[in-house]
Amino acid sequence: MRILPVGLRSCLVELADLDETLALFASLEAEPIAAVEEIVPAARTLLVRFRPGTLPDPADFAADLRRRDISAKAKGSDRLVEIPTLYDGEDLEDVARLTGLSPDEVIARHVASEFTVAFTGFAPGFGYLVGGDPALHVARRQSPRTRIPAGTVALAGSFAGVYPQEGPGGWQLIGTTPLRMFDLARDPSTLFQPGTRVRFTRLADRAAFDAIAATEAARGTAAPQAASAAGTSLRVTAAPMPPLFQDEGRPGQAAQGVSASGALDRAALHAANRLVGNAPGTPALEIVGGGFAFEADGPAVVAIAGTDAALDIRDGAGGRQVAEAYRPVSLEAGDRVTLRAPKRGLRSYLAARGGFGVEAVLGSASVDSLARLGTPPVETGATLGILPRSGGAAVGEAEAPPPGLPAPGETVVLDVVMGPRTQWFTRAGIDTLAAQEWTVTPLSNRVGLRIEGAVPLERLDPKAELPSEGTANGAIQVPHNGQPVLFLADHPLTGGYPVIATLAEHHLDLAAQIPVGARIRFNVIRPFAEIEPERPEGRP
Asked: Which end of the chain has the lower number of beta carbons within 10 A, N or C?
């Protein structure tokens, strides 16, 4: 067992194999540690995230883990799910060739197998299934596809799985199921929960497939419920970059393959709500850049935070005022408001007193752009209802914007903790991370900042493959090209590229405000060191 640091509030526990991983996960579920907020199991690791303010002593935590019995094989659930499958996959012939079997033999062995959901990740509802016939173990495709349809049944290595939504992937495709893997109308929403037993049944033909698909379509999906808004509404008149509703996200949904998501700049979200008298995590609009505009049909109190932008307000009589960021402002019916483009920072948060009547999905209004959860982006013509205020504080006092907001062309210093996979890189690669500046590219989004440096990060073995493991907000993941991705709130729950370092939590909000064209310099505040039961004298 190895315990590796992941930032300041998480660690990665590496085990010998999947059986040990599932056994330790079962032990932590049966005998939980109070400080643990969430655990993300993967092929050979557990990502353990601790609650804010309750971080245990690392040595004590390591000792607790090592005293647990991980020799017993974890028991599967009594729950059995059958997946009707039409074996029409594009790669069925290739899988037959790779295994030395005929296509019919591949199908027969797949149907005869009983699988177990080992863990979830990649996308909501995606379960990594183990326990199938070893003869069906095949490598991923050398060239991943950019589009795989929802419901595709696939193989990769020792795993089987079903793609719950359309997206890219490199697994070998052998069939299709009409069942929905992730459906908000179900409780729980995902068909595959860790421990669930799974069998695939063969559909005779396309007609049988279509009949089940028609039943699924007739069943419908759950429509997210919006809170009733009887107060003022804001009619959106311009949305050049459609904003997203965000709150504090949906932590604790890892079992469904859902990451927390939420506002990228939590401090700005809290400030905007504080200014208008709302609870800190009340949903607000996360707006990139300027140009967003709306008209109020009644009285309201709004505020923005996060950048140095301002609200340009024109009333029905031709009057005009400018409301700076971090100051609450009252609106009246007919007021037309435009968000000026910020000079510093990237994301502004617009809050309204009482909160917006926005739809909740899995307990949160946050839009997860990768998992495709939440309400659609706010487009021109949308009407945003504001809820009547009930209780809460009075409107807050004006505040000073945070210092050091970044601008394009400037350099931002971000603190990082080395690990968990620092040892996958050469000494030169490790030194390069902090020795040079990295430029934020236009490919950046809520999933992560894509950054480029003159010298790519050098790995010890460029061809080595890392089994999928849990990823954290702020992880600096390094693909084969050596140009890192700094994960933000919409990052995938699990990933297969090594993470050389992880952003310190106190700089996550700052990272959310770095615009394209700005540069980043990483400052190592803690070198890589495994977490041991007893910390040697002087060891960091």
From this structure: C
When the pLDDT of each residue in the chain is averaged and rounded to a whole number, the result is 92
Query: Is it the case that residue 514 has pLDDT exceeding 50?
Result: yes
Greatest pairwise CA separation for the chain in angstroms: 80
Asked if pLDDT for residue 346 goes beyond 70, the answer is yes
E strand residue ranges, 425-498: 438-440, 448-452, 469-470, 475-477, 485-487, 494-495
Walk me through the domains of the chain, giving residue ranges and CATH numbers.
2-66 (3.30.1360.40), 80-219 (2.40.100.10), 233-385 (no CATH), 411-526 (2.40.100.10)
How many Å apart are CA 333 and CA 331, to the nearest integer? 7
| Residue with the two structure tokens 């579920």 | 29
Q: Which residue in 272, 503, 248, 519 sits closest to 401, CA to CA?
A: 272
Residue pair 311/295 in contact (Cβ under 8 Å)? The answer is no
The SS3 assignment for 222 reads: coil
Other C-beta atoms lying within 10 Å of the C-beta of residue 403:
5
- What does the alpha-carbon distance between residue 285 and residue 271 come to, in Å, rounded to a whole number? 13
Among residues 389, 417, 445, the alpha carbon closest in space to that of 503 is found at 417
Assign 3-class secondary structure to 165-203.
CCEEECCEEEEECCCCCECCCCCCCECCCCCCEEEEEEC
Question: Which stretches does DSSP call E strand in 467-518?
Answer: 469-470, 475-477, 485-487, 494-495, 499-503
Q: Before 188, cis peptide (omega within 30)?
A: yes
CA dist., res. 254 & res. 162, Å (int): 17
* Polymer length of the chain: 540
Q: pTM score, two decimals? A: 0.89
Nearest to 512 by CA among 288, 193, 299: 288
φ and ψ at 501, to 5 degrees? -160, 170
What whole-number distance in Å separates Cα of residue 406 and Cα of residue 320?
A: 29
Reading the block at residue 536, the tokens are: 């040697």
Specify the DSSP class assigned to residue 445. Answer: -
Relative to beta strand 284-288, strand 310-314 is unpaired
52, exposed or middle or buried, with CB in 10 Å at 0-12, 13-18, 19+? exposed
**pLDDT at residue 142 above 90?**
no
Whether 487 and 512 have beta carbons less than 8 Å apart is answered as: no
**What is the token pair recorded at 474?**
């702020």
Question: Do residues 22 and 129 lie in contact, with contact meaning Cβ atoms separated by under 8 Å?
Answer: no
| 3-state secondary structure at position 110 | helix
Classify the C-alpha dihedral 23-24-30-31 as positive or negative: positive
Give φ, ψ of 81 to 5 degrees: -115, 130
Q: Which two tokens mark 64? A: 């607790």
| Residue 72 pLDDT exceeds 90 | no
Residues 358 and 228: beta-carbon distance below 8 Å: no
Instruction: For residue 277, give the nearest of 379, 383, 397 by alpha carbon.
Output: 397
Q: Indicate the residue type of 536.
A: P
Compute φ and ψ for 184, nearest 5 degrees.
Answer: -65, -15
> Which is nearest to 238 in space by CA: 343, 334, 337?
337
Q: List phi, psi (to 5°) of 505.
A: -55, -30
